[in-house]
Amino acid sequence: MGHQFTRAHLLLVLIIASAVASRAHKLKSATFLSPELVLAPGSVTNTFHYNVGFPTGHIGLKSFHVEPVDSGRPIPLYDTYLHHWAINRYVIPKGGSKSSSSSSDGESAKFVRNDGICQGNILGQHYGSGSETRRTATFLPDPYAIEIGNPEEGFEERWMLGIHAIDTRGVVDGQGCMECLCELYNVTIGGGYHGGLKCCEDGDQCRVKLGFQGRKRSVYLRYTVKWVDWVDGEFLPVKVFIADVTDTGERDMTETTGCQVEYEVEPCSNGDDDWCVDVKRLNFTLPASGYVVYGVGHQHSGALGQAVYRQNGEVICKSVPIYGTGHEAGNEAGFVVGMSTCYPEPGSVKVTAGEKLILETNYSSSGARGHFGVMGLFHIFIADQLPQPPKPTMATTFFHRSISAAHVFGGFSAESWTILAVSGLAALLVGVVGFSIWLNKQRGTEDGYQVIMAIGMSLV
Ligand SMILES: *[C@@H]1O[C@H](CO)[C@@H](O)[C@H](O)[C@H]1NC(C)=O
Ligand SMILES: *[C@@H]1O[C@H](CO)[C@@H](O)[C@H](O)[C@H]1NC(C)=O
Ligand SMILES: *[C@@H]1O[C@H](CO)[C@@H](O)[C@H](O)[C@H]1NC(C)=O
Predict the structure, then answer these.
(1) pLDDT tens, residue by residue, 193-225
(2) Whole-angstrom Cα distance, residue 238 to residue 146?
(3) What is each CA distance from 418 to 14, 142, 273, 428, in whole angstroms?
(4) What is the domain extent for residue 217?
(5) Distance 283 CA to ligand 2 centre (A)
(6) Residue 94, Cβ density class (10 Å: 0-12 exposed, 13-18 middle, ≥19 buried)
(7) Which of 35, 33, 34, 42 minimizes the C-alpha distance to 216?
(8) Which of 35, 128, 219, 226 stands the most exposed, by the fewest C-beta atoms within 10 Å?
(9) Pocket-testing residue among 168, 181, 207, 208, ligand 1, by greatest number of atoms within 8 A of Cβ
(10) pLDDT, mean of residues 405-430
(11) How far is CA 183 from CA 172, 246, 323, in A?
(12) Of the candidates 383, 407, 434, which is a domain's last residue?
């Protein structure tokens, strides 16, 4: 008798659970594997993969999460350093080759870059990051999404994944190899260029300890895309901008103007000072007005944080590195394993086209060597519309509150609203559990409690 009652409750909980999940957002999710990358100790891969797996149709992107893996298991950064990855949109005339490869679309691809702000196709990706990828949130709160999959007539939209990774097993100088110190790669560029992307191109080799034996290893990027089917009026599009602290502001398309992507941090002269900070600033403007929905920086090891300010010093968005403290993938000691993100309360932070903004990027310049090939990119997603006031349904009320709670606590992880939703469910379960305990107490058994707890735990 007691058991029957418990089952009826479980069913009820599960029905409510699925109702909440489907009301809250019609979120779809798919996980893809990049083409195989084969790496040996000290080797570099910097490859561009056209026509990679991606959801199709007229959709709104909600998040893009990346995990470097070997045969299914996460690979730690101290074995394979993920320098960066980026996913770029392009179109080809309809009816192009179906194959997914590094070259087949290369000739005919017409890149459809993000909304700015660098020159040409530089930093034109919709998403991109590096070692911080595992612990950096990319989720866009409802009703916002990146609208894609509506290419011009006669064209088909596809995606290119660029991956730059360095195998640092057995190398003589891990930090040096990761920062692409030219001398470690036996590359000479000249002109005062000591380290950076030009010295660790695809196929280059960093110096490995004498006699070190390490097998070739297959590496993949496993990426999970979340999206919604686009419905006009239900979702609001966001524009994607990337500001680069090295931007010279000129747009004449020479090699030394515009966004330079990387720069060098010189060591502070006072070698015994532990707290030297290299501060680099950029004055820039956005070409569009709107409300800031999401922001995140991209920095390398040595990072101390980034922020976008207004002229009056008001912080628009700040992003600071999360350093690992352990050994496991996602928490590798000394590596930037995440960047904090900002999610302003909807409508609270407005920027105006042409408004003078400042990007500030800080690195540690303590120690004898400084840093080479570092980056100071800042992703800013803005929307030109505010969400409608939420309808007073259970799901929207719930969601609205989740966002405020996350805002109060500062950070807002990719899945935090899901977590909050699940916590809500858990709370619901606790309620039902409480009720069941009470009921079962009346009937002299606590079996039901065990069962519901087990289900509760597996849901969380
Ligand atoms: C780099 O140059 C040194 C000295 O010229 C040589 O011993 C070494 O094998 C070279 N390393 C690589 C990776 O080519
Ligand atoms: C940015 O603009 C301010 C004046 O608004 C100026 O003092 C500063 O030098 C500029 N910085 C750069 C890096 O151009
Ligand atoms: C960068 O460093 C300067 C000087 O220490 C500091 O005033 C500023 O707040 C820092 N900026 C960020 C974004 O951390």
Answers:
(1) 999 999 999 999 999 999 999 999 999 999 999
(2) 5
(3) 16, 12, 44, 15
(4) 34-383
(5) 6
(6) exposed
(7) 42
(8) 35
(9) 207
(10) 44
(11) 12, 24, 27
(12) 383
Domains contained in the chain, number: 2
DSSP state of 442: H
Beta carbons of 235 and 61 less than 8 angstroms apart: no
Asked if residue 182 and residue 146 are part of one domain, the reply reads yes
CA distance 246 to 361: 10
Ligand 2 centroid – CA 256 distance (Å): 20
What is the bridge-based pairing of β-strands 350-351 and 263-265? unpaired
Single-letter residue type at 194: H
Same domain? 77 vs 190? yes
Cα–ligand 1 centroid distance for 84 (angstroms): 26
Q: What is the pLDDT of residue 346?
A: 87
Q: Give, using CA atoms, the residue closest to atom 8 of ligand 2.
A: 283
Q: Is the pLDDT of residue 459 over 60?
A: no
Tokens of 369: 């060597």
**Is the Cβ–Cβ distance between 77 and 241 less than 8 Å?**
no
Are residues 438 and 376 part of one domain? no
274: left (phi over 0), alpha (psi -120 to 50) or beta: alpha
Kindly report the protein residue whose alpha carbon is nearest to atom 9 of ligand 2: 283
164 and 134 in a common domain: yes
Pocket test for ligand 3, best of 282, 320, 362 (most atoms within 8 A of CB): 362
Residues 371 and 259 grouped into a single domain:
yes
Query: H or E segment at 265?
Result: strand 263-265
The predicted structure's pLDDT at residue 107: 83
Task: Please tell me whether residues 162 and 296 are part of one structural domain.
Answer: yes
DSSP state, residue 371: E
Distance 365 CA to ligand 3 centre (A): 13
Query: Is there a single domain that holds both residue 191 and residue 47?
Result: yes
238 C-beta neighbours (distance < 10 Å), count: 25
Last residue of a domain, one of 332, 354, 383: 383
Residues 289 and 376 in one domain: yes
How far does CA 26 lie from the centroid of its chain? Answer: 21
Whose tokens are 């912080």? That residue is: 315
